[in-house]
Amino acid sequence: MLRQLLPRCGRALRAPAIRPSQLSLAVQVPRWYSIKPEAASAAKPLGLDPSKLSITKTTSPKTPKDPATLVFGREFTDHMLTMEWTKTDGWLAPTIQPYQNLSLDPATCVFHYAFECFEGMKAYKDKNGNIRLFRPDKNMERFNKSAARIALPTFDPAALIELIAKFTKLEERFIPNERGYSLYLRPTLIGTQKTLGVNPPGSALLYVIASPVGPYYPTGFKAVSLEATDYAVRAWPGGVGDKKLGANYAPCIVPQMEAASRGFQQNLWLFGPEEYVTEVGTMNLFVAMKDKETGQKELITAPLDGTILEGVTRDSILSLAREKLAPDGWKISERKLTMRDLYEASLDGRMIEVFGAGTAAVVSPVRKISWKGKPVDCGLNDNEESGEIALRMKNWIEARQYGDEEHEWSYVC
Ligand SMILES: Cc1ncc(COP(=O)(O)O)c(C=O)c1O
Predict the structure, then answer these.
(1) Same structural domain for residues 117 and 79?
(2) pTM of the entire structure?
(3) Domain ends where: 165, 180, 213?
(4) How far is residue 330's CA from residue 321's CA, in Å, rounded to a whole number?
(5) Where residue 35 falls among pLDDT bands split at 50, 70, 90?
(6) What is the mean pLDDT of residues 351-364?
(7) I want to staple 131 with a disulfide (CB 3.0 to 4.6 A). Which of 52, 92, 345, 413 is the partner?
């Protein structure tokens, strides 16, 4: 049967050749079922357009809480910024509306296949009362990379920054005036298509909520102790640990609880048989140590090889270190470092200090790391809660966040 059909199919598939002289005629002949040009342009998905923003203010504004009682991520402002996307229409008009629950069908794809990514960034109030975002372009770049990796729509970064700036301005009364306080912003993107089919979502919702936060260390630095985690892996090359997907975070909670049960505040995530140090909890890791041969001081952080998140604070610290530490003879390295390297530096007295780096705390000094039951001392004296580099980095970064130093990293809303 197949053999009988083949010759005929072959003939049928051979389309008559169109000579160049016939081409213009061939494309000009309208076909009744073809898409009309105007229909095609209407179907072109729209980009995110801040000029279409509509604002509906709450009729029951909250009284901001006493700043001293703020707990990270518990209190939210009066409003939320939202924008919907559909595959056919693109980004619909953004809105700012009263903070409210979402209503989603139980079959919505975000609940089943984790179509979710997010960002974490902060707005600061400067001494003149201006509201400033810190390097929002970096967050938007990372947000787009996360979205693209899980088939969610991307957006024009400048348009979303403009919308976030308007939203933040609207909520400015929630940012306490005192130094150390800020407004934590949580841009979130979810797939909203109602389907159990495992497919790219045909609709999505991007929203931004805001939470006033206090200083991470209200009474000064408090150095933490880490457990080097070798029984669970947070991220691997070719995986998605370098994206800010919600799905990367829940699996880290059980190892975190295990570390806590043994008295450690965070996990130090190792990777591979070499036991490369990658990240600490939800922060990037920096190690300052002296070179074994030359004695040169080196500030080291893991390279962007897919096993770590591309932290905005990490990038800021590297840039500040190249600007301010390198002229004093420091070597600044993005390179792999094993747990054994750390252990040996500590034993040899070459360890200067270790700290985590992230938006929440800026820097988080480390006192010791437990590695296979051995305590690895990270260079702090018993009476110290921070090394000098972590402290200087915090001050340099905060000067730019709070606008004490005018800098291109600071975006005035
Ligand atoms: C896994 C992970 N690594 C590092 C960071 C630090 O990134 P950033 O400095 O952008 O806050 C975060 C924080 O969001 C994180 O979740």
Answers:
(1) yes
(2) 0.88
(3) 213
(4) 8
(5) very low
(6) 97
(7) 413
- The CATH number that applies at residue 300 is 3.20.10.10
Residues 173 and 261 in one domain: no
pLDDT in tens, 270-319: 999 999 999 999 999 999 999 999 999 999 999 999 999 999 999 999 99
Tell me: the pLDDT tens digits for 155-177?
Answer: 999 999 999 999 999 999 999 98
175 and 229 together in one domain: no
Residues 183 and 292 in one domain: no
Q: Which atom of ligand 1 is nearest to the CA of 241?
A: 1
CA 310–ligand 1 middle distance (angstroms): 7
Closest CA to 321 of 313, 312, 330, 311: 330
312 lines ligand 1 (CB under 6 A): yes
CATH number of the domain encompassing residue 129 = 3.30.470.10
Residue 307 CB less than 6 A away from ligand 1:
no
- Cα–Cα distance between 180 and 261 in angstroms, integer? 30
309 lines ligand 1 (CB under 6 A): yes
What is the distance between the alpha carbons of residues 270 and 241, in angstroms, rounded to a whole number?
Answer: 13
Q: Are residue 158 and residue 230 in the same domain, yes or no? A: no
Q: Residue 365, SS3?
A: strand
Go through 91-115 and write b for each residue having 16 or more CB atoms within 10 A of its CB, e for each that does not.
Answer: bbebbbbeeeeeeeeeebbbeebbb
Range of the domain at 353: 224-407
Structural domains counted in the chain = 2
Task: Please indicate whether residue 215, judged by its CB atom, sits closer than 6 Å to ligand 1.
Answer: no
Average model confidence (pLDDT) for the chain? 91
Ligand 1 pocket residue status of 140, Cβ below 6 Å: no
| Residue showing tokens 């096993």 | 307
| Start-end of H helices in 229-311 | 253-261
Q: Which of 309, 310, 394 to mutate to test the pocket of ligand 1 (most atoms within 8 A of CB)?
A: 309
Ligand 1 atom 15: residue of nearest CA? 282
